[in-house]
Structures are given as structure tokens and as C-alpha cells.
Amino acid sequence: MTPLLEVDDLRVAYGKIEAVKGISFTVEAGQVVTLIGTNGAGKTTTLRTLSGLLKPLAGTIRFDGTPLTGVPAHQIVARGLAHSPEGRHIFPRLTIAENLQLGAFLRKDTAAITHDIQRTYELFPILGERAKQAAGTLSGGEQQMLAMGRALMSRPKLLMLDEPSMGLSPIMMQKIMQTITELKASGTTILLVEQNAQAALSLADQGHVMEIGRIVLSGTGADLLHDESVRKAYLGED
Amino acid sequence: MHELPQQLANGLILGAMYGLIAIGYTMVYGIVQLINFAHGEIFMVGGFGALTAYLVLPDGTGLLLALPLMIIGGIVASTAIAVAAERFAYRPLRGAPRLAPLITAIGLSIALQQAIWKWYPDAKKARVFPQFQGDAIDILGATVQRGEIFLLVAAPLCMTALGLFVAKTRTGRGMQATAQDPDTAKLMGINTDRIIVIAFAIGATFAAIAAVAHGLKYGQIDFRMGFITGLKAFTAAVLGGIGNIYGAMLGGVVLGVAEALATGYIEEIPGMTQFGGGSWKDVWAFVLLILVLLLRPQGLLGERVADRA
User: Fold this and answer.
1) Would residue A102 count as lying in a domain?
2) In CATH, what number is assigned to the domain containing residue A80?
3) Chain B partners of A76 at a C-beta cutoff of 8 Å?
4) ipTM, two decimals
């Protein structure tokens, strides 16, 4: 079986500075794959390139059997790839319900959209309670829930989450990670970018460690969690 | 001439026209952060489009019958120019330093004026615009010309339609999303290039309606009419809070009324006599702009930049 996502020798540059220097990895349907690494490793750049927001310098991206390279950003979500961006980027002056509606912008099945919004409210009850409130009034953790819920509204084949735990309180972070675990259990395929390596590797099937634009180490989540160099560099152990 | 109801009516009519044009500035700015300084000329071209539609109709067509076709002619002309300007002048400069599109807009503005001057028949002087016949109408103690009634009907209709469009339709919601966060809007599947074209087209449509109103009110149009009126409408957009469509209309009305009151009353203030009357009205309009920029830079209905992050 061919993987859902195949990234081959991807290179991305901002002007003359190469941020991603030839990375290759795959995501199988049903898997959770994580990219970990420090700031500036190229994780966010990779996701933004997969979404079409950045144009690659070289390399190929194949998704669900078709090439994604050269497809404009606004057509990517229609292919089944949803992106919850770093920093959440909810639409602050629209209501929570309107934000979720926008997640389903390309869908025409009104009844099913209403149903999916209800399901999002079951997943995150706080969003249902505040459905008519401007999204900008939510706390950081609630905004993260909204960003994830919004990405799910497109019924994606692959959900990309960029730093979902960033800037959250430990309790909120735990809650977000638990939600990701639940999504995984329900069969959602996830590509997860995280600085919190411990949490990410604990629930990932596959992990890749990125350093200044390259993948330096790959393995199963459990392997990497017990790898000595990973523990030293990313899990804060001596 | 100094009765208050009359001055308020004059101001309201003038302000509604500024407001309609200001919508074009504010929508384009709200979505691409570009001040389209050629918008005054898009308004002017709309006027000539409407005049052309009138001239190709058979002689003796009643103005009431001709008016819808004139509006369509104006909208076709102004929208064609606005959409072409977006596609061929502004889009290639997206992502360029902000000075580049600004200079392009000013160049485009001069080019459009000169094109009409050179190629539109007899446009080197003002051209006569058709007029409604009949006496002026008395409304609540103010005398309103028949041609001005058009604006009093068109402006609220346009605003209501635009408000519903933005709030209730899928494209309108896509427009709000693009204004707030263009990259994330793309992630939702919104074709932001298309949204930008729609914003230009709506602005041009409203400008053409304002140009028909301008022609009916003053009885003539000329290739320079977009300059000072465009500048006033831009002032109205800033006054109301640029990026906010209701702010644009409010700013237009406030500016129009302020201008009318300044024209009518400033000369009655002791020691200010020489600053009153029609010749100083533009000065007072821009004094108002300076005051707003000093005291409330975000405009009447604008949000502080920090709130928009």
C-alpha cells in the first residue's frame, strides 16, 4: 500500500536562506507522525509548504496518489489536507460558530456541516457554550481547540497540527494532548509538529527529529523516546 | 441660505455621495492594505460610462427609463477598469514594498484622467449630464433638487445590500476571513485572489452609482471630477475608520455635514468671516481629517491596531 503522504527530498528557502534542506518522510493512513526539534529546525516551514503557502525549491510531495507540488494553497484543503497553523490563527472578529463554518468553506452538504459542528461542540463543550462569541475573546487553550475543530470541519484525510501545545498551561496542554489521542483512536491520520517532544513521541507511531533543515534521526515514537541523544537534547535530561 | 435644515440636507446628500465612494477605498484597504488612489478616477470613468449609455439610447428617451441603463453602463465601465487595474497593475506588485503600489495608483490615476481627456469625445471641457426636469421638492423645510433624490434612495439601498452580502453570504464570510488573516483564509480553501477582485468590483460598482448621482446633482461631468471628490471620499474612509464599511458611510455623512455647516456658519463667527463660504469648504474638510488623525487615529468606528492582531 502506498503511503497517504510522501515527501521526497523537499527543499524550501526564504530568499537565499534554505530553511529545509532536503527532507524525506512518509505518513501512512491511520498513523500519527510527529516532527520534533528546536526552533528554526524547519518544522513549520515544512507544514506551510505542504499546505501550499510556501513554494518548494525542489523535491516532490505526493498526497493520496497525486502530486501536490504547484497546487495553489486554496485548493489543497479540497484534496483532504487540513492545517491547524502555528499560533492558532483563528479569525478573531468572527464568532466561534462562524470560524467553524469557515473550516467547512468548500463543503456543500449543509446538514452534515451542522452535524459536524455539533460534534465539535461535544468534543470541546466550551466552544458550544460560547458559539456566538467573537473568537478573539477565547483564552489561548480555547483558541487552540477552535483551531483544531476548524481544521477537522473539512473532514480531512490528513490533519496537520503545528505546535498545538505552544504557550498553554500544563493542564490545558494535557487536555489538548488527550484530544489528539482521542482523534488518533478514532482513526484520524495526523502529522504533528511539537516542541514538547515527550508528549508528541508518547502518542506518535513514527517520529522524525529535525535539526537546522534536516531530519537527523527517525524511528518509532517509543524508540525515540528512549534514545539517549533525544533524551539529552529534547527531553532535558543529562 | 443659512437655515439649519437646508444645510443639514445639503451635507447629508453630499456625505452620502462621499460615503458611497469611500466604500471602495475601505474595502480594498481592508483586504489588501492598499490605498487605491486611482479610485477617484474609477468613479470618474463610471460617470462617463453612464453618459455613454445615455447617448447611445434613442433621442427623447425619458430619464427615468434611461437611468437603469445609465447605472449599468457606469458600473460596466468602472468595474472593467478596476478589475483590469487589480489584475495588471496591483497584483504583480503584491508583496512588493508598500510604496510601489501606491506610486502605481497615482500613475494610474493620472493615466485615466488623460485617457478620458484625450479620447472621450468633447471631454476636454465638462460634458453636460442629463437632468431631471421639474421643480425642487420640499422635505422637512429643506429644498432638495429632483436629481438629489436618487442619492437619498440609492445610498441606503447600497449599504443595506452590502451589509447583508458581507454578513450572510458564503463569499461575504470569505471576504471577512481574508481581511482578518489572508494566509489562514487560504487554508480554509478560500480563493483570496478572487475575493480581492470582488472587493475591487464592489467598490467600482458603488463608485459608478455615486458618479451617476454626481452627474444628476451638478448637471455635468468632467475628467477631473474624481480628484477632489476622491480625496474627500478617502478622507471619509479614514474618518470612519478605514477597513470598516459602515465607518465609510458614517465618515462620509459626518464629512458632508461638517462641510455644509462650515460653508454656512463659519462666516458668522466674529473674526472668522473671511474663512467662511464655499471657497473654504475643502480646507475645513481636511482640518477635520487632521483633527481626527490627532485625536482618534483609528477613526470613528475603527479598532485600534492592537485589537486586530
Assistant:
1) no
2) 3.40.50.300
3) 187
4) 0.94
